[in-house]
Amino acid sequence: MPRGPLSGLKVVELAGLGPAPFGCMVLADQGAEVLCIDRPRGRADLVPVGSPAPDDPINPYDVLSRNRRSAGVDLKHADGVALVLDLVAGADVLIEGFRPGVAERLGVGPQPCQERNPRLVYGRMTGWGQDGPLAAKAGHDIDYAAIGGALHAIGRAGQPPTPPLNLVADFGGGGMLLALGVLAALWERERSGLGQVVDAAMVDGVALLMAPFVGARARGFWSDRRGENLLDSGAPFYDCYETSDGGWMAVGAIEPQFFAELVDGLGLSQDRSMPDQHDQARWPELRERLAGVFRARSREDWTELFRERDACVAPVLDVLESVGHPHNVARSTFLDVAGAPHPAPAPRFDRTPNAVPRPAIRAGHDTEGALAAWGIASDRVAALREAAVVA
């Protein structure tokens, strides 16, 4: 069966949190063979709430860890480091998400890895990057979004900046950018025959995602005041409105033809007192008019009314509601993986489609089989297990 366009690519992942596992999930979803090097005693602190019993080797709720095998290896032991370097010798990619300098102190930094395998692409995922005055400091998505210029721009007028989950830095500007960087380095390797280090920093990724807004702000098109711009809830035709049952409808009627459909769907097209779409002085009045109409009916009523209209209006769904939405069902946007809902691998390919995701293996529960699949002899694994170097 086809396993995606990256079938045959071998990746060693040094277990971490958030963005690096997400990047590895993206690669594994596209068919890469990813071996996660976990702690030998597992990583109970990373197991999501609601997981199965601790002795169950399968954890379908750990979506970020799907589609790869797990070997528990002690990287603080010289034999564990030697084992990882042997795995690197047969790999295409290594990915780590430690603070700068940690991989070097462990003995698995770029130099020893690329001495063993000059073709190795070494992917590094950090918040601040490998250099700069903040490189060694701790941080989380919210900090990188703050320094990268995104957080200040997100929120309503008169309200504090609103953290956009951890989508902007951890996943969009982090793990996704890491996966792109790895693939770019692999493409270059086809010509040079050599690997290289990919320095993927979340603060850089946030800045990159802000590209159109940086340009718009520099030329004065975009205000630095939250909630006063076209796409930040400043425009009443690009916002969310509460319905009679406490639900919400998302409105993105920017273009005039979509705005006309919106007004007609709300029954306001014959109202001559309606403010003009782009009369910013009357935007508060327009917002009040739209809000009053939306509050008169339920979310389901408005969903049905706008179902056949090109008005750029959609119901605001929670995560589990999204799983059951007819469009997502028709496209299999979500899949059932061992009883848990998973987003399907994306994007899609016509000749080399991705396989259905496999549920995550608990950290270290697949050590012997995983190492054997990567060519490590069983007697060596037994000796390492006896010495408590591997799980």
Model description:
Helix content is 36%, strand content 14%. A hairpin with a 2-residue loop joins strand 11 and strand 12. The strands form 4 sheets. A 6-stranded parallel sheet has the order 4-2-1-5-6-7, with helices on both faces. Helix 5 crosses helix 6. The protein has 391 residues and is an alpha/beta fold.
Topology:
Blueprint: E1 10-14, H1 19-29, E2 33-38, E3 58-59, E4 68-72, H2 78-89, E5 93-96, H3 102-106, H4 110-116, E6 121-126, H5 141-147, H6 167-192, E7 197-201, H7 202-209, H8 211-218, E8 238-242, E9 248-252, H9 256-265, H10 283-294, H11 299-305, E10 313-315, H12 319-323, H13 326-331, E11 334-337, E12 340-343, E13 360-361, H14 367-373, H15 378-386
Parallel strand pairs: 1-2, 1-5, 2-4, 5-6, 6-7
Antiparallel strand pairs: 3-13, 8-9, 9-10, 11-12
Helix pairs in contact: 1-6, 2-4, 5-6, 5-7, 6-7
**What's the total number of strands?**
13
Fraction in beta strands = 5-15%
Give the helix tally: 15
The percent of residues in helical segments reads 25-40%
- Outline: elongated
Assembly status? single chain
- Global mean pLDDT: 94
Termini Cα gap: 31 Å
Gyration radius, to the nearest Å? 25 Å
Enumerate the strands of the largest sheet in spatial order, edge to edge or round the barrel.
Answer: 4-2-1-5-6-7
Low-confidence stretches: none
Which structural class should the secondary elements be placed in? alpha/beta
Major sheet: 6 strands, parallel
Output the helix-strand order: EHEEEHEHHEHHEHHEEHHHEHHEEEHH
